[in-house]
Amino acid sequence: MDRGRPEKLTSELKNLITKIKTREPKRTAKSIREDVRLHLISQKREQNPQLLDKEIKRIVDNEELPGESAITKFLTPIVKQLKIPSLLDQSWSIGSCIEYDIPADMIPALIQIQQFAQKLGVKITTRQARWFARLYPTVQKMMTKKQHTNIAGVLIQFAIFRHVKLDREASNFLVKLFKFLESAKELSNQSEKEQLNQLVGLVWLALIGVQYARQEQVSELIGQLGKREFDTAALDNLYFIREDFLAEALLDGFWDTYATPEGKKRRADYLANFKGLSAMELEADFGKQLIQNQIDMANDFSRAMLHSAVRGREWIEQHSEQWAELFKLWEEKEHERTHN
Questions:
Q1: CA 40/CA 63 separation, integer angstroms
Q2: Are residues 242 and 134 part of one domain?
Q3: Staple partner for 305: which of 17, 226, 312, 328, CB 3.0–4.6 Å?
Q4: Cβ-contact 15, 35 below 8 angstroms
């Protein structure tokens, strides 16, 4: 054990390390340790905003950061398991529904999700399909009771995200999802409301389901399932328990599940140093030169949105008139892009 380092990894750090290793199998314990350090520093900064960065880094480095040898020891069995992937993490097919007790009446929805995934250049796994089936009735009920995703509203949020450098995996997915939602926006002008709601419901189901599947896979790899420590409480609260659920939470949940600590640090640094988008950058998004009041308004929204999607929605609710003006400008530009 490294002298002065914590001998035992916390459950939180085990989850984090396993997520990084499953996503990037070639990463070494040394490089993963750097991500763990970034995570601990960010967490400590949020918990103790009164502390100077120098003091936060001293506490993390001397008291909380596990040694490289501890991480290597923990990863040894994980690496062995990753060399023999679980059948649950292979591509889903209709035939796998028989072996893994996925209800036959879920097949039409799973086919639609598979088609949706292919447009994004990804595959759905059997593990994910099982979670889609488990959550489908709950998500359907939620769709009838809670706020529906405003497709056009989500589009402008992604326009803001394009100015932030995310980790490669999350960035590629978001760009593809942005393009898919652009086509969905066009669909909303041509088809029945019921058809659009079904599409949005499948998007919700897919984005939520992959997060539950990822948590199950990580818990399985570190041997927690047998100890009844497979904990989904954070996801449960974010999506199903809270009465104030907003569809925009899907973006935050996706970010928390898939972004690396390095990517989160970049986002936090960008937000801390965010001076506002330039008039030229805003002109590219809105298609015209904005007056100073509109520039300030767009940047206020950007700051809220960069913090979290839910914070962005709260800004919209508190500034409904300004939002209507901003959105009208952006929508006119999108209409021009679509029809030219």
A1: 11
A2: yes
A3: 312
A4: no
Tally the C-alpha atoms within 13 A of residue 201's C-alpha that lie toward its C-beta. Answer: 21
Q: How many residues does the chain have?
A: 340
The Cα 261–Cα 117 span in angstroms is 25
Q: What is the pLDDT of residues 42-56, one digit of tens each?
A: 888 878 888 888 999
List the one residue out of 16, 17, 20, 334 whose CA is nearest residue 179: 334
Contacts of 157 (CB under 8 A, 6+ apart): 248, 251, 305, 309, 312
Q: What letter would DSSP give residue 88?
A: G
| Residue in 10, 41, 67, 53 with CA at minimum distance from that of residue 261 | 41
| Helix, strand, coil percentages, rounded to 5, for the chain | 75, 0, 25
What CA–CA distance (Å, rounded) separates 163 from 275?
13
* Both tokens assigned to 28: 């070494």
What's the pLDDT score for residue 339?
Answer: 59
Looking at the fold, whether 316 and 183 belong to one and the same domain comes out as no
pLDDT of residue 165: 44
Instruction: Find tokens 């298609």 and name the residue.
Output: 287
Of 39, 26, 89, which Cα lies nearest the Cα of 262?
39
* Tokens found for residue 263: 């990517």
Run of H or E residues at 31: helix 29-47
Residue range of the domain that includes 26: 11-82
Give the tens place of pLDDT for each residue, 7-60: 568 888 998 899 888 878 888 999 999 989 988 988 888 788 888 889 999 999
* Token pair listed for 128: 């994910």
Both structure tokens of 70: 């501890």
CA neighbor of 153 nearest in space, from 176, 185, 186, 131: 185
Strand-pair partners of 91: 125
Based on the fold, state whether residues 162 and 215 are members of the same structural domain: yes
